[in-house]
Amino acid sequence: MMATFVLDRRLPEYEAVKRRFLDALGSELREGARSVTIAEPKRSNEQNARMWVLLQDLAEQVGYKPARWRGDRLIEDGAYVMLSDYPRARRLTSAQFKDLFTAALFQPHTFAGLYGGVVAFGERTSQMTVRQLTQLMDLIDEFGNERGVIWSAPPAGR
Fold first, then answer.
1. How many CB atoms lie within 10 A of CB 50?
2. Rounded-to-integer distance, Cα 107 and Cα 140, Å
3. DSSP codes, 42-58
4. In a 3-state reduction of DSSP, which class is residue 116?
5. To pair with 148 at 20 to 30 A between CA atoms, which of 3, 46, 56, 114?
6. Residue 134: alpha-carbon gap to chain centroid
7. What's 95's DSSP letter?
8. How far apart are CA 35 and CA 28, in angstroms?
9. What b/e sequence results for 105-134 when a residue is b if at least 16 CB atoms lie within 10 Å of its CB, and e otherwise?
10. Reported pTM
11. What is the pLDDT of residues 7-28, one digit of tens each?
């Protein structure tokens, strides 16, 4: 038998779920060898929806102003800026912002691109735990707040 039990002390049904878990574990162990995995819960659908709202707000309001060079001399660093201040800044999609933030939160694996350049592989948010996605959204909030992003949804719901 395969079963999943979500044990969260904050939930009113915690004691009943814990009792069912212990009963199931006892009966399964009587059947023979079993493998038991204990893990943090995966991110919720509500968290995922909130993350995409944040990323969409960034995509609509923030762009990338590339570095400026004169010959081999750097004149001005590149920066993420408000599109209202720099309308010609390069736009990123919400998916590109997601890649940017997962790479900032977790160390990405980088490889040479097939035809030059570098490709970074980050983490899949669908595999993140509640805690990890909360950290990611905190990073997005901080980044946006530093630049004056106007959020379309309140920070609750994490």
1. 22
2. 16
3. BPPHHHHHHHHHHHHHH
4. strand
5. 46
6. 7
7. H
8. 10
9. beebeeeeeeeeeeeeebbebeebeeebbb
10. 0.73
11. 888 889 989 989 998 988 888 8
